Amino acid sequence: MLTFSDLTGADWRKSSRSGAGNDCVELVVARIGAAVRDSKRPDAGHVEFANAGWTVFLGALKEGRLDA
């Protein structure tokens, strides 16, 4: 089971596509997977992905399957 139980001090980085309005996500990558959170509300929680799930998620993004 993936757990990022303590991300205190984690090196979150913002998306390279973040705009001037700060409408972006932040990401932290670890050996066991990755976590994503809203840059405007970092205390609201995050979404965790195991390595395999992260690969599927990135593929869906790149293919445009998650476009609104």
Describe this structure in words.
The protein is an alpha+beta fold and 68 residues long. The chain has one domain. The chain is 18% helix and 26% strand. It has one helix and four strands. The chain has one helix spanning 51-62; strands at 13-14, 25-30, 33-38, 47-50. It has a four-stranded antiparallel beta sheet with strand order 1-2-3-4. β2 and β3 form a beta hairpin. The radius of gyration is 12 Å and the shape is flat. The N and C termini lie far apart (30 Å). 4% of the residues are buried. The mean pLDDT is 82. Residues 10-62 form the DUF397 domain. This is DUF397 domain-containing protein. Pfam families: DUF397 (PF04149).
TL;DR of this structure?
Helix content is 18%, strand content 26%. It is an alpha+beta fold and 68 residues long.
Q: What is the overall shape?
A: flat
Task: Give the CA-CA distance, first to last residue.
Answer: 30 Å
Tally of DSSP helical segments: 1
Q: How much is the average pLDDT?
A: 82
Strand content: 25-35%
Give the number of DSSP strands.
Answer: 4
Sheet with the most strands, sense and barrel status = 4 strands, antiparallel
Side by side, the strands of the main sheet go 1-2-3-4
- Gyration radius, in Å: 12 Å
| Structural class category | alpha+beta
Query: Unreliable segments (pLDDT under 50, ≥5 consecutive)?
Result: none
Percent of residues in helices comes to 10-25%
- Number of folding domains? 1
Query: Helix and strand string, N-terminal first?
Result: EEEEH
InterPro entries: DUF397 (IPR007278)
Pfam families: DUF397
Protein name: DUF397 domain-containing protein
